[in-house]
């Protein structure tokens, strides 16, 4: 068969990656063609550089065209959820693309609590109330004019040659608390926070074509990075840990889980690409360590990951742990000092970078294992655990997670979001899912790590 080529643009909170996927009918060849570092712009409001994100997507297509000698068959954007931008009819931003770590979310949550019960909102949307949720970000400020678009959708729309109406992809929209568990806009809540009906775009399913850029199909292929990562597994019964800046433990369920037990356990629900639900527990993941490394680099200490990992491996298991979800660890700045202070509160002294990283590794491993056990109790799901994302490169983290679970963890691709994006695009273009699953099972994408 003719080779099908697609570009996955995977927007992370610290860099944008573009991966070219080429499917020849039996195997998938992948090549990273672009990686651009970025971070939220540290001003008020804390916001993303939308122009950089859009430029990166265009550059990825140009590079892919040069490599292939023709335009790729498809492209899709995935990224984190909750963050949005309000746009005019031409897709030009009317507001900054506020970052979920901006203080507006906390302000909005405090305002909305007095107007709408959080328990009721959870029952209706399946989304756990958190400061980062889109509804709180919007409630924290005066509602602007224009149409709401989630960030991944906005970047995708900027690629389409012809004019297309704004949309909201099911994957990213499900993270917002503005969409009910049945997949429709929560218009009552929108009205409470000041959003008009004409500011909410049409909700659209995943695995569909948005429009074209020349001959390249622009697709919705998961839209949310975790949805794409889980889609890459091709296993409908899997439990998963998607470990990147956030560490997300989850289980695939037929529908949103909104029981009393789920509420008390902190389970949130988001849409999966296959129409199912992802019942999840969200943890602060590798971001804390990334912030520590950034601080050390600014102070003149900049070891490679391999060098620091070697030092971390020599540090004994800490005698106590910190709460990886502690509020102090959710905002940037002075992260090594924040970790050291939390450690002192539980009787642990960490002075050296390797001691701080060892404490973070052990604390995250415990949190991940606990989250999987909790999800099994709450959802009744008992399945093999797959770990995806950048955290799979940290063998100590995976080994400790497996040890604490008391069972092997199947490690999947570190770039699982990009892989899932590619797989979803191929399926949208007509490639049989069974053929891709066969390649997955016979390739080196998956391997077990034991306790």
Automatic annotation (TrEMBL):
<keyword id="KW-0119">Carbohydrate metabolism</keyword>
<dbReference type="GO" id="GO:0005524">
    <property type="term" value="F:ATP binding"/>
</dbReference>
<keyword id="KW-0418">Kinase</keyword>
<dbReference type="InterPro" id="IPR043129">
    <property type="entry name" value="ATPase_NBD"/>
</dbReference>
<keyword id="KW-0067">ATP-binding</keyword>
<protein>
    <submittedName>
        <fullName>Uncharacterized protein</fullName>
    </submittedName>
</protein>
<dbReference type="Pfam" id="PF02782">
    <property type="entry name" value="FGGY_C"/>
</dbReference>
<comment type="similarity">
    <text>Belongs to the FGGY kinase family.</text>
</comment>
<keyword id="KW-0684">Rhamnose metabolism</keyword>
<dbReference type="InterPro" id="IPR050406">
    <property type="entry name" value="FGGY_Carb_Kinase"/>
</dbReference>
<dbReference type="Pfam" id="PF00370">
    <property type="entry name" value="FGGY_N"/>
</dbReference>
<dbReference type="GO" id="GO:0042732">
    <property type="term" value="P:D-xylose metabolic process"/>
</dbReference>
<dbReference type="InterPro" id="IPR018484">
    <property type="entry name" value="FGGY_N"/>
</dbReference>
<dbReference type="GO" id="GO:0008993">
    <property type="term" value="F:rhamnulokinase activity"/>
</dbReference>
<keyword id="KW-0808">Transferase</keyword>
<keyword id="KW-0547">Nucleotide-binding</keyword>
<dbReference type="InterPro" id="IPR013449">
    <property type="entry name" value="Rhamnulokinase"/>
</dbReference>
<dbReference type="GO" id="GO:0019301">
    <property type="term" value="P:rhamnose catabolic process"/>
</dbReference>
<dbReference type="InterPro" id="IPR018485">
    <property type="entry name" value="FGGY_C"/>
</dbReference>
<keyword id="KW-0859">Xylose metabolism</keyword>
